[in-house]
Amino acid sequence: MSIIRPIHLQIKNYDSPLAIDTDCPIFAWQLESENRGVRQTSYRIVVTETEENLSNEAELCWDSGKVGSSEQLNIRYSGQQLQSLSVYYWKVAVWDQADKQVWSEQQILLTGYLHETDWKAKWIGSGRKQPFYARHEFQVVKPVKRAFAVVSGLGHFKLFMNGSKVGNHEMDPGWTNYHKSVQYVCFDVTDHICTGTNVIGLSVGNGFYAGDAGGRHFYTIGKGYEAFGENLLAIGEWHIEYVDGSKALILTDTDYWSVRDSATTLANVYGSENFDARRYPIGWDNAPFDAAKWEQAVVLTAPSGRLVRQNQPPITVQKIYDTNGVEEPLEQVYVYDLGQNMSGMFEIHVSGLTGSKVTIKPGELRNKDNTVATPWDIVTFSEYTLAGTGDIEIWKPDFSCYGARWVQIEGCTRDGADSAKPVIHDVKGYFVTSAAKKVGELEADDPRITQLAQIILKAIESNLQSVHSDCPTIEKLGWVETASLMGPSIMYVKQVEELWLKITRDMTEAQTDKGLIPDIAPEYSRFEDGFRDSIAWGSAVIFVPELLLQTYGNRTAIVEAYPAMKAYMAYLHTKEIHGGFIGHGLGDWGISPQTGGDYVENVETAFYYEAFRLMAKYALMLGYSEDHAHYEEKAKRIKQLYNERLLRQVPGETRYAYCKLNGEYDPENQVMQAMPLYFGMVPEEQLPDIENALLQAAASHQLRSGEIGLRYLFGALAKINRNDIVFDMMMQPEHPSYIRFVEQGETALPEFWTDESRSRNHDMMGHILEWLYKHMLGISSIKDAYQEIGIAPICIDKVRSVRGSYHSVRGIIQVDFSHGQDGVRLQVSLPPNTSGEVKIPLAVANGKVFEAGQETEFEPIWENGQPFGLIKISSGNYTFYTAEEYEK
User: Fold this and answer.
1) Residue range 399-437, pLDDT digits in tens
2) Contact 664, 679 (CB under 8 A)
3) Domain stop point among 748, 776, 804
4) What is the rounded CA–CA span in Å between residue 407 and residue 762?
5) Residue range 455-467, pLDDT digits in tens
6) What is the pLDDT of residues 726-752, one digit of tens each?
7) Within 13 Å, how many C-alpha atoms sit on residue 121's CB side?
8) CATH number (domain holding residue 408)
9) Read out DSSP for 632-661?
10) Same domain (yes/no): 224, 371
């Protein structure tokens, strides 16, 4: 019985079904089945305004009808006009190839504001730049059916109702160019409302909206940062529906809203906060409370950016780390080891006299005397002033996080020997990251490889916030090249579809009038020269939508960003040199610590070609025939010019290789040969020469690449079936090396190839993670966002087994691979509605492959002298063997 069930129903481009701010939502789902070869042959979606109508299929807002299609990722709503802040219900039925139908569970869909004019609330605040509290009381006298709140506060806000924090979010809303867009957040507050007096509380801090350095590290000040507004402010609406069908609306305005300055006296987004517990108005977010001395809220000028729903996952606490150990390197200076370098909010447990202070200094580095150090000796610390209640007081920051493993506590004792100083009882680390779901698991029999995957994952998670930051310590900026270059690695371990769409929008909002996509988005600081204008960064506006398409089947970014892509390509055209080369930028940045690479024209122009190729693809997809012809011609021209000027005969030899524009040839430069190979720029007749040139450059099996070329180096070597070289590069005992970081005890990936990297929590060099999943574990998408799946784990003597899974946009893909003297064993699981191509290594050319005890036919192929069997499979679970002994 080949029944399939639709599960994990989703509204595309949103992390939750609350406040969908589009009148044309896109529906998607996954499928599950216990059987092999199960496909979806048809679907039907119905949408209604009530659960009863959905159950009865009556008074439908939309009925797609039975549609003969296997599509499960991109079905656009085409029904009655949806209304703002309205509840809808939907479900989907699917049919298998036996024409058996199964309905999904029902799902809610709450629209957000579909038009900016729908907002009735006003922006309010204290009229000052300092953090503030705002409160409002209202009455409820009858049963509540449901209630939703839509709220924003700049720079960051927390929402409280009746004494409890609403939701598990941290640092809402997401960072944006507040002149262009301001995100709001929707909460289901039904369970937070009680009969009688209810209290709403808003706590607002600075963030990037109106940054406050407080005399401490604030990276972007002095580098072009300008505050977006003079005052902190908040807006919110609470929509309440009662059981009897009546409704109530609570708005931020001047009536009955009171404000006062916060106990948070400094909210520095770079990780420094001051909190004076003596100033905290206990019970302010609950009733009863005397707010007679609070000020009346003032209506403030709204930010110029339009209000949009926070589409990406919120930032949440992933894990709380307890202290592993405590040292006292200096008298009454205590260093707490949390065991993990993280983007953290660090909590202290302290007791002492009223007005006494504790200083908290987190850091991911330590000095020779074991005190906490910071890169470049930047000044980052927080101060907590005790209320002196006599009890243990607990505090952690509200509006910022910082990268650290160690937390240094000063100004107190641990044993209470000095009665004038507070006593520190405990320190905890709250690891905060995007709530993006974890989708990848990988384990090898060499535990160092498993650990390597883990430290890269921790660096990824530390930098997944509302942007993809470069590091949680020094800069906290959305350098956009990692969204493109590290995107494939990140997408193997985290579900970042909505966040990468938000990053694409950040790039379009950062675009200049001339068409430049700057290297940072949102552009909170402005760098010049190569650090603002480098194609490996700017082209992310073109490359990221391709990743979204290939990984998630998401077309939205291509549609939305296409005008910005065109403008960027027109800008680059004005920067061409020598008839079509791009000669400005950073080249292969990171090839040596903190330096740009050489061979700028080679690197930048290869990106230029690939950008034209993708533009031609997008234009064809979107039906722009003139654009398609234009970009195809441009790509052809750049490719021809690239080969005419850079592909040269090696001096004194008959073979060809890629050289610098001036003819200089460096036989050890790997990236110069790898990039044109990866992008398909090499003329067919010269392919053997370029492959050999790459192999010569990689003959030492030692890495010679920075972050820009690294992905293409690994990809090019894999393309010519030399994954053994990539493996050896990864396992080198000395730098540049990945395994060196593991053996040095790093718990997150450092920034550069050195033991003394300034940042110990960068993921920009983590491209080996894509290789581990795509080639070592062997999972890849052949076609249509994992509708056709490749399974091809590599067989290396130094790794006898590898297993793992990837939760693709269509469902879970699992691989368990091992090999030894008895042969090869490969277990594979593919989700319904997909097919696969399995490549299994053979001991001999005429070897046999068995599945479930039966000999299986395969297509024999050879790669580098090694025989393989190629097997086509449908969805389901399989166990392949190359020796009958495994069946015994």
Assistant:
1) 999 999 999 999 999 999 899 999 999 999 999 999 999
2) no
3) 776
4) 19
5) 999 999 999 999 9
6) 999 999 999 999 999 999 999 999 998
7) 23
8) 2.60.120.260
9) HHHHHHHHHHHHHHHEEEPTTSS-EEE--T
10) no
